[in-house]
Write a structure and sequence with these properties.
With 463 residues, the protein is α+β, with helices and mostly antiparallel strands. It has helices spanning 11-59, 67-77, 113-124, 153-205, 222-276, 281-309, 322-332, 357-373, 404-408, 425-436; strands at residues 81-86, 89-95, 104-107, 131-137, 145-151, 318-321, 342-345, 352-355, 378-385, 391-397, 440-447, 450-457. It is built from ten helices and twelve strands. Helix 5 packs antiparallel against helix 6 (281-309), helix 7 (322-332) crosses helix 8 and helix 8 packs antiparallel against helix 10. It is elongated, with a radius of gyration of 48 Å. 20% of the residues are buried. Residues 223-250 form a coiled coil. Keywords: ATP-binding, Coiled coil, Kinase, Membrane, Nucleotide-binding, Phosphoprotein, Transferase, Transmembrane, Transmembrane helix.
């Protein structure tokens, strides 16, 4: 994070560029009506100047002036000729000997906004000089209409000069405003964001160090809230990391203890088998209880090790017939079945699914053993297909149902067991296996008439 972003990619540079662009766009929208109005004002001013020249002529004796004065009046009005129209009377008051032929007539009294804009840009981009005949009411007297014949070239030069001034002013305003916004946003946003990013990078490199935790700046806006949330998240994450390290140490210790304990339990199992053949009736009666206790201890060790060491089971998926899997499960639980126990396989012989056979067998055996150990005498297996194409495997029993405490803590390690001496890890591991398949393990129902679990597998992807 020590590298600073390239100037062309930094947030500050983008903000500066966007500010300048937006201001120039705003100025462009202002420029369009401005240049049209500038042209109209220019023409009106020339009409007013022409009217003043005509009034000067009327003030002369016999309304006659010599040729030199007339040329001076025309030069002042920058016109080839001036015509006054009063009612039906039309009078050429000032004119050169041979006025040039007009190329375009502009009536200021009838020109709308859009033709005015189009006319302004037509004048601005005109390459050759045109002679204009400008018609409109006199600014001095609305009852008098004036016609003035002028060149377009001076108008175009004035409009070009005005455009350059507008462009220069727009650039100055854009640059000045952009710099102000750049400095403000850099101070208010960019610097705090960089501080956040730098702190995140430092925390990523060494999350367990207290010094890598961000210290909130005390701002009360969204960035201040983000700093506070980041500080809380870093604190919670640091606790989880430390807890993970402790659990890893515990896991290592449990693995060593488990190894020694299993060896001891194996010896206890051999002793139990020998005691079962004892001629002493009392001793032979206690032998099965001892054997059952040893089995529970071995099962506890195995489940604990699975839970501690197995975060995500490794799967070797394959296509299989669900009915064949159920038959294997039934054969694995025969040691818990007696003469009254009944296992019913209602799965269609052609029902197929995809998954890791070993892991799925483990899940089904765990559910079946739990049911038999809770007192169920009947197990029923069924298979169906959901609307999305997934496979649903239901395991139902006629046992007494799960206690309320077990239902409330279902799938919680060391809390969700329904039988005495259980750890609740079996269901936790079973659900982890199903979720690693992309499916799930859910409790459908439980009560005095029995319990039903459902295994959901995603639909088979056909290559």
């Amino acid at each position: 994070m020590d590298e600073k972003p390239h100037i062309g990619l930094s947030l500050s540079a983008r903000l500066l560029l966007l500010t300048a662009i937006f201001i120039l766009l705003a100025e462009a929208f202002i420029y369009v009506p401005s240049i049209a109005r500038y042209r109209k004002v220019y023409l009106k001013e020339h009409m007013e100047t022409a009217h003043l020249a005509a009034l000067a002529l009327e003030a002369a004796p016999d309304q006659m002036v010599d040729e030199e004065l007339e040329n001076r009046l025309l030069k002042h009005a920058e016109a080839y000729g001036v015509v006054l129209v009063e009612g039906e009377k039309r009078m050429l008051v000032l004119s050169k000997d041979m006025p040039p032929k007009t190329n375009l007539t502009i009536d200021l009294s009838t020109e709308d906004w859009m033709p005015m804009v189009m006319g302004a840009f037509e004048t601005l981009f005109q390459q050759e000089n045109r002679v204009l005949r400008v018609v409109g009411p006199s600014p001095r007297d609305e009852n008098v209409r004036i016609e003035v014949i002028i060149d377009e070239a001076p108008l175009r030069m004035e409009m070009a000069d005005y455009s350059r001034r507008i462009l220069n002013l727009s650039l100055m305003i854009s640059l000045f405003t952009g710099v102000l916004i750049y400095v403000s946003l850099h101070w208010l946003l960019v610097r705090p964001i960089r501080r956040l990013a730098k702190n995140m990078a430092e925390f990523r490199e060494n999350p367990e160090e207290e010094s890598s935790t961000i210290v909130p700046s005390g701002r009360r806006d969204e960035l201040g809230q983000a700093e506070g949330e980041l500080q809380s998240m870093q604190g919670e994450l640091r606790k989880l990391l430390r807890q993970k390290d402790r659990l890893a140490s515990i896991g290592t210790a449990v693995a060593k203890i488990n190894h020694d304990l299993r060896n001891s339990l194996s010896k206890a199992m051999l002793m139990s088998d020998q005691l079962a053949g004892s001629e002493d009736k009392k001793v032979s009666q206690l032998a099965p209880q001892l054997s059952q206790t040893v089995d529970q201890a071995i099962d506890l060790c195995s489940q604990t090790m699975d839970y501690v060491s197995n975060s995500s089971p490794r799967l070797e998926k394959e296509l299989f017939y669900v009915g064949d899997l159920i038959e294997e499960v039934i054969s694995h639980i025969q040691d818990l079945c007696d003469e009254e126990s009944e296992t019913i396989n209602q799965v269609d012989a052609m029902a197929e699914a995809e998954g890791d056979l070993t892991q799925l067998r483990r899940v089904l055996v765990n559910l079946s053993r739990n049911a038999l150990q809770m007192g169920a005498s009947r197990l029923e297996y069924a298979c169906s297909t959901e609307e999305q194409g997934g496979c649903l495997i239901d395991v139902s029993d006629n046992g007494p149902g799960l206690p309320q405490k077990a239902q409330d803590n279902l799938f919680k390690p060391f809390e969700g067991s329904a039988r005495r001496g259980g750890t609740g890890l079996g269901l936790v591991i079973a659900r982890d296996i199903m979720r690693s398949h992309g499916g799930d393990l859910i409790l459908l129902e439980t009560g005095v008439t029995g319990t039903s679990f459902r295994l959901r597998l995603p639909r088979v992807e056909i290559a």
